[in-house]
Amino acid sequence: MASTTRFLLVLTMVLCIFKCVSCIEFQVGERAGWIVPPANNSKIYNEWASQKRFRVGDTICFKYKKDSVMEVNKTNYDECNSDRPNYFSNTGNTIYTLDRSGFFYFISGATGHCEKGQRMIIWVIEQEGNSAAAGSGGTSDASINSAMVSYGVVFIMVAFQFVYQQYV
C-alpha cells in the first residue's frame, strides 16, 4: 500500500512538471524590450507576434523603463484608449500569463506611445497534449534551461525513489 501511494505521488509530480515544461516564456521586443518603435517600423510588435505560436499557459515578458503595459479590449486597442485596462503594470519587468485562447490586445500606457506603434495583438491557441515546442522561433535559452532543470528534478526524484525502496 505504501509503495502504491509513493508511486502515485511521484507520478503526479512528474505530470505536473511535464505540463510546466511545455509552456514557453516569450520576450516581447527581444533584446530591445518594450519600447516605442522607430517611426519607420510602427508594426514591429505585431510582426513579431505573428511569427510566434502562443499557447494557453505561455507567458510573455515585457521589459521597459519609464513606461507601462496594459491589456485592453479590441476597441480600446484600436483607439489607443488607456482609460479602462483589463490589466495594468508599470514594474519595468512584467510577466503576463496567457490564460485562455483567443486574442489579447496590449498597449503602452505612456502618453502617445500607443499612437506611435507601441501596441501588439497576440493570438493564443489551446494547449495541445504534450507538444514540446510552441512554434517557430519560440524556444529561448530560458525555456531550454527551464526544461533541463525540470528533467533534472524528475531524474533526481526517480533515482531517489529507487534508492529509498532498496533501503526500506
Automatic annotation (TrEMBL):
Gene3D superfamilies: Cupredoxins - blue copper proteins (2.60.40.420). Pfam families: Cu_bind_like (PF02298). The keyword Lipoprotein applies. Keywords: Cell membrane, Disulfide bond, Glycoprotein, GPI-anchor, Lipoprotein, Membrane, Signal. SUPFAM superfamilies: Cupredoxins. It is found in: Cell membrane. Residues 1-23 form the signal peptide. The keyword tRNA-binding does not apply. One of its GO terms (cellular component) is side of membrane. Coiled coil: none annotated. It comes from the Eukaryota. Belongs to the early nodulin-like (ENODL) family. This is Phytocyanin domain-containing protein.
